[in-house]
Structure formats: C-alpha cells, structure tokens
Amino acid sequence: MQTLVFVGLGNPGATYEKTRHNLGVRTLKTWVVATLQQLAAEKVWQESGLVERLVLEVPEQQAGVTRVHAVFPLTFMNKSGEAIRDYMASEHLPLTSLLILHDDIELPIGEVRLQRGGSAKGHNGMRSMYQQLGEQTIARVRLGIGRPDDMPVDQYVLGKFTTPEEPLVQEIMIKAHEVLAKICRQGIDALL
After folding, report:
1. Does position 42 have pLDDT exceeding 70, yes or no?
2. What is the CATH number for 79?
3. Mean pLDDT of the chain
4. Which pTM was predicted?
5. Residue tagged active-site, from 21, 69, 102, 123
6. Domain that residue 173 falls in
7. Active site includes 21?
8. What does the alpha-carbon distance between residue 7 and residue 28 come to, in Å, rounded to a whole number?
C-alpha cells in the first residue's frame, strides 16, 4: 500500500475561506468530499498538532489501496512549512510522498500544472515549505489564479474570486481532482 500526503495550502478561519490564496485548501477539501462520496465512506477530521487532517483509503485499479493523508496546516500561510515538517516527522513519512496544492499568480487563472520543485517566487507558503523541509524538489500542483492588473498582490491574493471568475475556479478544481485521482492510481513519480 502506498501512502501519500496531499497538503492544501491556505490561511485558517472563515475570513479566508474563499480567497484566492486558499485555493489549495478549497481544491483539496472538495476532492476529499467527492472521494468520500464515491467510496460511500465516513471519516472524521482530526486535529493533530499544527494541522487538521483526514486519512482516507482510495482503491487503486490493480486491486491495491492508496492511503491518502489530506492535510491542512492550522498555521497561517507563511508558517505552513513548520506544520508540515512536524507532521511528516510525527507520521514517519518520507518527503517523496508529499504533494502540495497551492495558488499561483504566475499561471493564468484556470491553468493547473503538476511539477516537482521550482522557485517559490513570492509564494510565502512554498518558501516556508522549502525552508522548513530543507528540500526544494517537493511535488506540487500549481493552481493558476492570474496576476492582478490594478491592485497590490497581497490584496489580490487575499481577495475573493469574482462572480465571473467562479466558473474558472470550478474548472481548476476539476482539473486538479483529475491529477489527484491519477496520482492515487499511479503514484507521484509516474506523472512527473
């Protein structure tokens, strides 16, 4: 059985729930809900140190099972690396099992890209991951939110998606869910 750790990056609390910066959390939570419905399973959320998590078992095509830890840091974005460092150590899981989902202003809204490593650029969550984990080849799903034209980046990422943008957000989540399903079946390395 392979074990994977999917991390949705964002800020905790209802204030940030539907902001652009929380697209990683939103995407992973909707994938978890859809996967649990397909499996007709019930699991409970647990708080474990600095994270909220749900562990679910997803059947593979070849009669195997992938255990997925869906993990959401309870720290703010710029300290998320501390939460994940502690979580991976407490669960004795290798960094090769880790996949981060996060918003990305460098990609146009609607684009989804799976890659290993790459520059954090201005993303404080990824910068924190790299610093705390001591590794810059972490697998990640970059979720394009586009770059703002007429406002500072911090206001833009902490703002909510507009009504016209919401259909694109749904497309992003569908594309990302397909990537996560493939990873459950084939593993991270098979797709990178």
Report:
1. no
2. 3.40.50.1470
3. 90
4. 0.93
5. 21
6. 2-191
7. yes
8. 8
